[in-house]
Amino acid sequence: MFIHLFLLILFIPQFQSLKVIQTSYGKLRGITVWSNDKNHRYMFKSVPFAKPPVGNLRFAKPQNPESWSGILDASKYSPACMSNSSSTSTPQKHYSEDCLYINIFTSEKCLNSKCPVIVYFHGGAYNLDSAIMFNDTFILDRYAAEDVVFVIPAVRLGVFGQLYFGPSDLLSENLFLYDAVQALSFVHSEINYFGGDSKRVTAMGHSSGGTIVDALGFSKLIDPGVKLFQQMIVLSATGMFGFYDMVVDNSFAIVEKFGCYNGTKDDRPNANIAEMLDCMRQIDGREMLLMQRHMEEVDDRDFRSVLRGAPFLESNGKIADLKKSPPSRNLLYGTTEHEFRNVDHMNPYISGIFLDFDNPVAVARYYDEQLMANLETMINGDAAAIFICASTFSTAMANTGADVYLFETRQKPYSFHVSDMQYFVGIHREIYHRPDMDILDTFYSKLLVNFTKMGVPSPEWAPLDPERMNYLELKVDSDMKEGPVMLEGFHEKEMELWFGEMMEFDRNVTKIRQSQGLPPEHLDIETQLKYWETTNKPEILTKTTKGFTSIHQDNNSNTVTTTASAQSSLLKNGSSILKQWWFYLIIFLMILLVVLIVICLRKPKREEELPLLS
Ligand SMILES: *[C@@H]1O[C@H](CO)[C@@H](O)[C@H](O)[C@H]1NC(C)=O
Ligand SMILES: *[C@@H]1O[C@H](CO)[C@@H](O)[C@H](O)[C@H]1NC(C)=O
Ligand SMILES: *[C@@H]1O[C@H](CO)[C@@H](O)[C@H](O)[C@H]1NC(C)=O
Ligand SMILES: *[C@@H]1O[C@H](CO)[C@@H](O)[C@H](O)[C@H]1NC(C)=O
Ligand SMILES: *[C@@H]1O[C@H](CO)[C@@H](O)[C@H](O)[C@H]1NC(C)=O
Ligand SMILES: *[C@@H]1O[C@H](CO)[C@@H](O)[C@H](O)[C@H]1NC(C)=O
């Protein structure tokens, strides 16, 4: 009986202890997760990589953190960056403006002999999700235990990272990209204290995080000497770059709502940016967040853009120029088969451009008209952007002589935009989970680990030859006895369409506008809304399903209505009970009760036996 109790105590989880390390800023106390193989794992959470961007530092570029004395607690996650939107199925519960922290997963082996590093930029349209929402166990098992240090930084989201009024020394576009660069610089100077090798850093990103990695990694301004990071992993990068006019328009709109600007639209170029910033820094952060949400729902104004400008490109630079002779880095580039195909995802305006069209609204409308007529064979523009982006960025990098590995996940029954996250960060596991998916799960993250360590995901995987556009089709189908296979001609059909007919249409529109003496399209929200109103807006182009909510259709035509993320939050709720101390107390008391009952039941038995013996 006592052995049982002893075992029970032994197996109470949270069997973790604390681990103290030194950085150049001060000491940190992280968590040890004991392991049978003696290669214990460590987590250092909420490590500050910048001064808190609050008060006068709100809307300022990130600055190096202050040193601290004593030991900083790095055992718990900091709050997420500010986000509150109806268009996510993974809302963050605890958020704060003070969010520029980095989370580091490492191991005993790495602390003793430096390991290569992955710095992972999360997705969420630069507006949602966080650096604290992934699966710790998964990351420790799949990366730290495999001798890779895994790092997840936060960047400011929404208006907090995107407010912009036009060229000025006082406020730069893309503040959140400066956060990303700050995080990479911090990793460069500090990761050796956590067992990482600063000369073997792979920047990785999913969705909008993938676009962050494309922007930084292809930039000739950020890290031309390839010192901050040496390799890239880009997964389902959205490829869309936003419009200056729209971001400036949205920024003035929110400033006006708080009474920090009272001028007319025409006065805007003369607006006093210092005064506006000063005024906006007095506003309560939560109020600003609620206003952002209000604007999103009522005015159709989103802060979800990365602009083609600082710090990675000259202002309003061309995407084609970004792709021209980038610093050479090995690159692993992936997409999923269906991406946004399940999302009737059309805002009344378009979210950005992925090729340098002069008339992006006209082009988007032309494309969507064709799409409506060919829903079976064509994909929506946002999905097309992902495939074109994958094809063009990977080709551009291969042309520098780097090794590029292109792949597409085509796991049945479906592979949508977030379907593959279960294989690389351990969230969004599907309800309709098939055994084949578990098989894929045994090696998907190993491909990333192999690439991070050796620059080669798998010995059988040939690097991209732009002539053939060869890529790995990643899937497991036991019934058909099929596994991953190399194919050629990555999204040839979409490439032909966009670089052929769509480009031609764009040139035609430019010619027509020029002949009528019209200026180029002005891309603020009002112009776009007007544009859609005056055209025959097809049924599907209503803004019913914004963002990433999705209805998954499996192959038996069962409609799986919850989103992948909603499923994962169900799972999270399910497991959170395991983290409550009272849960174990109840189990302990129940076992005690059972033990007592067993003892009580035994006694009469002996008494019955007595007469027989006598
Ligand atoms: C998010 O915004 C909604 C609508 O304004 C509000 O009701 C809700 O309390 C906010 N959520 C959080 C977690 O602040
Ligand atoms: C996290 O990952 C572990 C290990 O891969 C898995 O067993 C667990 O179910 C995952 N947890 C959640 C909430 O998905
Ligand atoms: C704008 O107008 C409001 C209301 O009249 C006023 O309170 C505020 O000070 C003005 N702001 C600026 C920047 O002039
Ligand atoms: C659904 O099943 C059919 C027939 O078995 C197959 O041809 C098709 O590719 C499947 N579709 C998906 C999305 O798995
Ligand atoms: C990872 O690389 C090793 C060494 O080249 C190889 O044996 C292994 O098969 C690779 N893993 C996968 C999943 O391809
Ligand atoms: C572009 O204009 C030419 C000449 O008017 C026309 O033949 C062609 O079909 C147009 N292309 C597209 C894609 O609209």
From TrEMBL:
Keyword Ubl conjugation: no
Carboxylesterase type B domain location: 19-344
One biological process term in Gene Ontology: ascaroside biosynthetic process
Keyword Transmembrane: yes
One Pfam family hit: COesterase
Stored SUPFAM superfamilies: alpha/beta-Hydrolases
Keywords, alphabetical: Membrane, Signal, Transmembrane, Transmembrane helix
Signal peptide, first to last residue: 1-17
Record field: transmembrane: 581-601
Classification via InterPro entries: AB_hydrolase_fold (IPR029058), CarbesteraseB (IPR002018)
Protein name: Carboxylesterase type B domain-containing protein
Organism: Caenorhabditis elegans
